[in-house]
Each structure stands twice: as C-alpha cells, then as structure tokens.
Amino acid sequence: MEKKLRIGIIGTGGIANAHMKAYQKLPNVEIVAGADIVPGKARAFLDSYGLTEAKAFDNHKDLLELELDGVSVCTYNTQHAPCVIDALDKGVHVLCEKPMSVTLEEAVEMRRAELRSGKILTIGFQPRFGENMKLIKNIVSGGELGKVYYVQTGGGRRRGIPGRTFIEKKTAGVGVLADIGCYGLDMALNTIGYPKPLTVSAVTFDYFGKDPKYMGEKDAARFDVDDFAGAFIRLEGGITIDFRMSWAMHMDYMGDTMFLGTDAGLKVESPGKDGLWGGAWDGDVGPMTLFHDVGGKCVQTAIPSVAPKDEDKFFLKIKSFVDAIVNGGEAPIPTSQIIYNQAIIDGIRRSAELGKEVDIVIPEI
Ligand SMILES: NC(=O)c1ccc[n+]([C@@H]2O[C@H](COP(=O)([O-])OP(=O)(O)OC[C@H]3O[C@@H](n4cnc5c(N)ncnc54)[C@H](O)[C@@H]3O)[C@@H](O)[C@H]2O)c1
Q1: Which in 92, 163, 188, 231 has the greatest CB count within 10 A?
Q2: In angstroms, what is the span from residue 36 Cα to ligand 1's centroid?
Q3: Are the beta carbons of 175 and 206 closer than 8 angstroms?
Q4: pLDDT per residue as tens, the chain (365 positions)
Q5: Does ligand 1 have an atom closer than 6 angstroms to the CB of 41?
Q6: Domain range enclosing 69
C-alpha cells in the first residue's frame, strides 16, 4: 500500500477547514497534527473532524518536532513568515495561505529559507486552478493580443469588510490590499508572465473600516488597516498595471479586468457585480470578450466560459501541493513569481504612506 503523507496544519481558524476538507478527500494523506496559539483550539478543530488520534499543540514549533512530510500554514498574515521559515528549516514542505507575507523583507527571507531547505514552498492562490483563468492566460500568452502594454485589474465589494483578524495590523498587517488585492495582482501578473515590477504610485484609504456606521463601534475602534487601495504600477517590458481594490464603497464594482494589446484587447467582466460581495478576483469570472479587427473592421468575439459547474479550485490547490510532494515536483505556485506580487503590495503600502511614487527593489536572493 502507498505510504500516506503525514501533514500538519498550523493555525486552525476559518480557512483551515477548507484545507482539512480537501486533504480528507485525498487517500494518500493523513492529517497527523494541528497547532494554534489559542489554547484548546487545535484540539477542538481536530476532534470536529473525528481526528481524536491526531496531536494538538498550542505552538507551531512543537508541531514541527513531529516527523512530517508537509504543513499548511493557515495563520493570519503576520505569522506566515515565522511559521513558514521554521517549517522549511525543519525540512518540511509548505503550503502557505495567501498573501505570501506582510512585507517584502519577510517574503525574501521565506524564499531564502525555501532555497536553503530544498523543499517546496507554494502559496495558496486557488484562482489559478480555475479553467477560465487558465483560458485567459492561454489566450494572452499564446500571442492573440500582440504586445500587451496596459492591464486594468482589481475588483471590490460594495460591502464586504471581513472583520475578525483581518482588520488589525498586528494580525493582518495589511487590509484589502493584501487580502483580495493579491488575487487581482496574481490574475494580471500570471496572465502576462510575471514581469518584474519597477515602480508604483499608490493611495490607500480607510474611510469605511474606521466608521462605526459601517463597522459598529468595537470593530471601527480596532480597525487600523486599509479598506481601499489604488495604484499605477510600472513593470519591466513597458507594461503598466492600473490596480484598484476595495472592501467597501458606494459603487457597484471597480471596473472590469482588461488586457490591452497591439493586436487585440481582452475584457474579463467582474462576476457578481450586482451583489454586495462581487469582483473579479477570486477565480470566478463574468463574460469574456475579445476586441479585435477582422478585414479592417472592429469586431468583438464572445469567449465561451469553460469552467465546469462543479469546479473546486480549492481542492485542486491542495492536491497540487500533495502531488508535488509525491512526485518530487516544483512548487505549483512558485515564490519566484509571488515575491513580485508581494513586492508590489509592499510598494503600494510605502507609496501610500509617503504620498509619492516609489521604486520597487527586490534584494538578491
Ligand atoms: N485562500 C483563501 O480562499 C483564503 C480564504 C480566507 C483566508 N485566507 C488566508 O488564510 C489565513 C487565515 O485566515 P483565517 O480566515 O483562517 O483567519 P483566522 O483568524 O480565522 O485563523 C487564523 C488562526 O491562526 C492562529 N495562529 C496565529 N498565529 C499562529 C501561530 N504562530 N501558530 C499557530 N496558530 C497561529 C490564530 O489563533 C487563528 O486561530 C490568512 O492569511 C488569510 O489571508 C485564504
């Protein structure tokens, strides 16, 4: 019989449930442990899945003393870097939830730890596993648009500030910019082959998060991150990204995702833009249209959606990690790319603080 992979989960809050459910669908995986700094939380989490034999810890370092093949790091953002680095230094493969980290410095240290360990570090961007997302990438990378020079990306919610550990610097580090902004950036950057970012000019706001009218007294008093971010990003190769992302606003949505090329343009409309929680950022997409010329005439071609109704991108993300461990493969969502995503988030934060354009400098790794 095939040996089961021994997997642990660090941080047993909300998203850990999605990890657990996906792992439990895989016959070659055994969840052997969980850790959470809230005493008793990991035990209750494991028990709720009938895993009474699995070990529970209130410290990730104790969990890492076990013999493990891999861990999911599902802590809030400020704890991604320490947990990931400790796991890699113990020789364990890691799937880290998005965003990669809070700062670029942390992301650099995580990548260094990955390289010195020789283990896999993959970052949890499940939208990449969507068939429509793959189609968008294939259209653009196949050269259909010619040279791409401008991308508009982002999305947003009319009302959708998550609360909990997402709204304080000490746990989240960054607000909407990192929470769902990282998805908008990944959608754009992955489609165009992740060119290196050079500069960014950005603004961030917090008008809704800090207002008791929208958040309630208690959460408004805690709120110290951004709830809106807008940026103009210059990339290597003469490409620019116009980015916007919002957790709350007096608007239905923040515009569609657009790729402008010298031969054609691709518009990907936001899904769910009529609701309070819409936006083209989580892997679902609305109608897709190619704008091009035929016989000297301007025409528009509707691109049929290809995603099956039962597509489970989250399961595919977990499976890709497990498959990479089993097959000795590469990280499915490599940090060599996501470090650029994190560098842009870092640049947006710095630019907004300074009120001017900043350079993005990624240290030698
Ligand atoms: N991919 C997705 O669709 C998706 C969705 C939601 C959240 N996330 C990401 O997952 C992460 C967690 O989000 P959440 O909603 O589960 O948050 P959460 O606050 O519900 O859970 C985080 C848990 O981590 C624990 N924790 C913090 N530091 C720890 C440490 N050093 N060791 C062990 N446990 C620790 C906390 O006590 C908490 O229980 C975030 O980074 C978020 O961006 C991803």
Answers
A1: 188
A2: 10
A3: yes
A4: 678 999 999 999 999 999 999 999 999 999 999 999 999 999 999 999 999 999 999 999 999 999 999 999 999 999 999 999 999 999 999 999 999 999 999 999 999 999 999 999 999 999 999 999 999 999 999 999 999 999 999 889 999 999 999 999 999 999 999 999 999 999 999 999 999 999 999 999 999 999 999 999 999 999 999 999 999 999 999 999 999 999 999 999 888 999 999 999 999 999 888 888 877 677 789 999 999 999 999 999 999 999 998 999 999 999 999 999 999 999 999 999 999 999 999 999 999 999 999 999 999 99
A5: yes
A6: 5-127+312-342
Burial class (CB in 10 A: 0-12, 13-18, 19+), 87: buried
Do residues 194 and 292 share a domain?
yes
In a domain? residue 364: no
Residue 105 lies in a domain: yes
| Cβ of 74 less than 6 Å from ligand 1 | yes
**Which are the contacts of 151, defined by CB distance < 8 A and separation ≥ 6?**
188, 191, 192, 239, 240, 241, 242, 257, 258, 259, 260
177 shares its domain with 295: yes
Residue 34's domain is classified under what CATH number? 3.40.50.720
Looking from the CA of residue 317, the nearest atom of ligand 1 is: 1
264 and 336, same domain (yes or no): no
Residue type at position 271: P
